[in-house]
Design brief:
By secondary structure, the protein is of the alpha+beta class. It has a domain at about 355-495: Calycin beta-barrel core domain (Lipocalin), CATH 2.40.128.20. The protein has 14 helices and 21 strands. It has a ten-stranded antiparallel sheet with strand order 15-14-13-12-21-20-19-18-17-16. Strands 2-1-11-10-9-8 form a six-stranded antiparallel sheet, sandwiched between helices.
């Protein structure tokens, strides 16, 4: 990929945005939202505010989850523009060999536009049915799911439908959506996809799985805001953008909810005549046509509506139709605030004398849902290293008592499952009691933040913890461990506490 220049930067006031009001917006996010990781605000195509809450940073990609769907939709848009398919094509046209033995009238009537607008006719999300297909053929699993209604309504959120769109693009182009989008979208916009998950058949997951940096999310939104034109070159047909971001189906009646304003082609309609792609736990690409603005946010929050509420309440009033008088003093305060953002660390006590006594010891853990078999700590004056056997694999992470320690680790990569993927992590620890070490481990490319308390006894270890967000339980039952025999002096020191 050729070097792509960064987005232009300018003062907020030059683009009609008040620096004091932006500061109020950032303060409100920091005060009311537990885990904001990154923010990029574009006005009139220029960056007027950007910030990352340490230990997150601009070069660290972030899991997009369902924001991936908007990119899959864009791949469909390119394929439509190239005459490779039409939104009124029947779904079974592409996969006659995968159809169930008995094809219902509703399945036979399902079209590409129904996949795009989440109006397939299913009574519920078919994703579990699709991904549990015993041959690993998610498309076949989706087609086997009962279609209880005529396609076209009602709206039922259905990630498997997005995956079928990915499979259709691959079928008609001969390329995965990643490879197909690379020369058409990613390279022109200067986007470097860090990762895109695939199903067991090697098809890019259409409903989730893409990882991008915050500014790259903003670039994608700006392309849509500009009607498909980038640097004076048409990238995507304007007609597709209008259709994809328009209300295609009703999805609720709550005027206060941004999940009830209508749904397009893998884009949500929002209040204030805006639209967005979004992903679980607070990944947003928010496009505001009336204000000529784009907001990209990455985060790790259990409830996504409050983030948008802060945008509506604090950010919208900050934007004015014309340039504002320069305010260098206020701008300097804003820049300093944005550059100094960080997430709180646990309050620490002095390093416990237990650190030296338990260092190097291995604990055999009772059977548990995290599949943690052994735990070992090796302490130093500045922190140390935790090593865990999880399933059949050993994973470790270095931690610091002051600030975060970065490294690659598969530790706790999948809550509730065996860890298998090495990811960038940032770890910090603090002795919160003389016998208890609290470890905070952030998966920097994901929204997941693990907090574990390790309580040391004479010959035992108790490990209990939580993760900030997940698709299942976020609290982990306490795990008990027994110390293996190690240096007698260390054991005697524990006995004498």
């Amino acid at each position: 990929m050729a070097d792509i220049p960064p987005l232009p930067r300018t003062s907020p006031e030059a683009q009609g945005v008040s620096s004091p009001a932006l500061l109020d917006f950032v303060d409100a996010l920091d005060r009311t939202i537990s885990e904001v990781h990154g923010l990029v605000l574009l006005r009139h195509g220029e960056v007027v505010a950007e910030g990352w809450w340490a230990p997150y940073g601009p070069e660290i990609p972030h899991m997009l989850f369902s924001l991936t769907k908007s990119f899959t939709s864009t791949a469909v848009g390119f394929a439509v523009a190239e005459g490779r398919l039409a939104v009124d094509d029947l779904v079974l046209k592409f996969f006659p060999e995968k159809a169930p033995r008995r094809v219902s009238r509703n399945l036979a009537a399902m079209r590409v536009r129904h996949l795009l607008s989440m109006s397939t006719g299913h009574k519920g999300d078919a994703t579990e049915r699709a991904v549990s297909q015993r041959e690993g053929d998610w498309v076949k699993g989706f087609l086997a799911a009962p279609v209880g209604h005529a396609p076209g309504k009602p709206f039922v959120y259905n990630s498997a439908a997005s995956h079928v769109l990915s499979a259709i693009v691959e079928k008609v182009t001969g390329h995965s959506v990643l490879d197909y989008l690379t020369p058409r979208l990613f390279e022109p916009l200067g986007i470097r996809p860090a990762h895109w998950e695939r199903d067991p058949r090697g098809i890019c997951t259409g409903g989730w799985g893409l990882m991008l940096r915050t500014e790259e999310i903003a670039r994608f939104g700006q392309l849509y805001l500009q009607g498909g034109v980038w640097n004076g070159r048409r990238i995507l047909p304007e007609a597709w953008i209008r259709e994809a971001t328009a209300k295609q189906v009703d999805n609720g009646a709550d005027p206060r909810s941004d999940w009830s304003q209508g749904y397009g082609y893998q884009f949500w309609r929002c209040r204030h005549n805006s639209y967005r792609g979004d992903g679980a736990f607070g990944q947003y690409c928010l496009v505001l046509p009336d204000l000529d603005a784009v907001v990209a946010i990455t985060s790790g929050v259990p409830d996504m509506q409050p983030v948008l509420d802060v945008v509506w309440d604090r950010l919208l009033p900050a934007m004015h139709p014309v340039a504002l008088p320069a305010d260098p003093a206020a701008e300097a305060v804003l820049r300093k605030r944005l550059q100094g953002l960080s997430l709180p660390a646990p309050a620490a006590r002095p390093v416990s004398p237990l650190a030296a006594q338990v260092s190097g010891g291995t604990y055999d853990m009772a059977e548990n849902e995290l599949k943690i078999r052994t735990v070992r700590f090796d302490f130093t004056a500045q922190g140390g290293r935790l090593t865990v056997r999880q399933g059949a694999n050993d994973h470790s992470a270095a931690f610091s008592y002051s600030g975060y320690c970065f490294g690659e680790s598969g530790l706790f990569a999948e809550p509730g499952h065996g860890a298998s993927v090495a990811r960038l992590v940032a770890a910090q620890a603090a002795w919160v009691k003389e016998d208890t070490l609290r470890l905070t481990l952030r998966q920097c490319t994901a929204p997941f933040v693990f907090t574990f308390d390790f309580t040391f006894g004479a010959d035992a270890l108790t490990m209990g913890g939580k993760v900030n967000v997940y698709f299942g339980p976020t609290q982990f039952p306490a795990i008990e461990g027994k110390a293996r025999a190690w240096a007698e002096g260390r054991r005697r020191g524990l006995d004498e506490r």
